[in-house]
Amino acid sequence: MKKLLLILTVLISTPCLGQNLEGSWKGIIEIQGTKLNLVFNFKEAGGNWSATMDSPDQGGFGIPMDEVTINQNKVLVKSKALQLTYEGTITKDCIEGIFQQSFLQVPLNLKCDTSEASQRPQEPQPPFPYQIENISFPSLDKSITLSGTLTLPDDLKKHPAVVLIAGSGPANRDEEIFGHKPFAVIADYLTRQGLAVLRYDKRGIGESTGSLRKTTTLNLAEDVEASIQFLRNHPNIQSNNIGLIGHSEGGIIAPMVASRDQAISFIVLLAAPGMTGKQILKKQNEESIQRSPITNDQKTKALNVAVQYLDYLAQTSSEGTSTEALHNTLDSIISINLAEDIFPQVSREEMIKSTNNNWIIYFLNLDPSEYLKKVHCPILALNGTKDIQVEANSNLERIESSVKNKELLTVKKYLNLNHLFQKAETGAINEYAQIQETFSEDVLKDILTWISRYIKF
């Protein structure tokens, strides 16, 4: 799930050198005594370079960069939207450079991360015993094209199908994060067992057109509906046997779609919110603030600011509000809470940028129960006890109370699994990369067993 970057906000796998930068490069910046991890993920195709940035301590992943220039031993990376520049010099085993964002300018030395690529044992590897189709389909209003991958059992029969729905943020078709590709793992497992699986890049990500910055959860639900239309017209798909598997925000989208399409066969909710969007984001900010290296008094002030600012945003128009109004309101909230020392001007600027969009306003006012109570197909809701992004107990309880026909609902909680369904020690976001497991095999087996109760394949 998205996290508001409310404290010290600097916004928001892999062989390395020779002079080959392709891969993930990690470093740490220090701001007012607080250290933040940053990762640049470089890719090269046909002589052209691209990059994304991760800010794992703040929950930002796969943030696309606008410009990447490699000139001999010089590296230049820019994001216009974030007013961000990284300029560095390639040395023998690192990139030494300067990170700039708005008025912030700090040293940032990056080292190539070679550890993670060899520690993703679940990532599917060819040859594959099934068909792989690179597909594309139009959005409902035909304004954008969504691109993805359809995996099909290797025969000429028609098969039941599943659509995978990613969580919030700039997710590609594999829902790739820290070198993990959970959707590739899920698709591979289910297709080997006889299910067709469709996964696709979000708007403006990967090979899909459009802009994610202008997108709301409702738009993303409409894209799922477009993917279902595509599957129903595919010659190798059983059009009456299509289910949805949604992770995190995707776990809200699945019931949104199923509540409007009574032909959906089943939905699986992975770490799905049951609480309202405002409740989720408040809880996430509380968790993030408690883990921040500031005093208890500062934590109290920061949480008060976060809660009051979210309350204000939830009351604004669905079309957003002016940047000036956001500035004035945020400045007033910070002043009332005597929190000027926690929120320097650069942090306030980034808070405004990260929250002045339609997605946040729509999500704050989103209540999953409004859709769950209208779902009439079987529902499987799963979560882990180490999930700190969508806390298991409160959200699963709300899902249970929202579903009218309890006979349709199966709920299971897994001990020590995090938001990605990895076996975890703490559940913290910066732990995801350190874990070799991509997605619990026990959960995969449970999903398959449950689906087989309702569909033959």
Automatic annotation (TrEMBL):
Entry keywords, A to Z: Hydrolase, Signal
Gene Ontology MF terms: carboxylic ester hydrolase activity
Residue span(s) of domain Serine aminopeptidase S33: 184-279
Top-level taxon: Bacteria
Name this polypeptide is given: Alpha/beta hydrolase fold protein
Signal peptide: 1-18
SUPFAM superfamilies: alpha/beta-Hydrolases
Keyword field contains Hydrolase: yes
Protein source organism: Bacteroides coprosuis DSM 18011
Matching Gene3D superfamilies: alpha/beta hydrolase (3.40.50.1820)
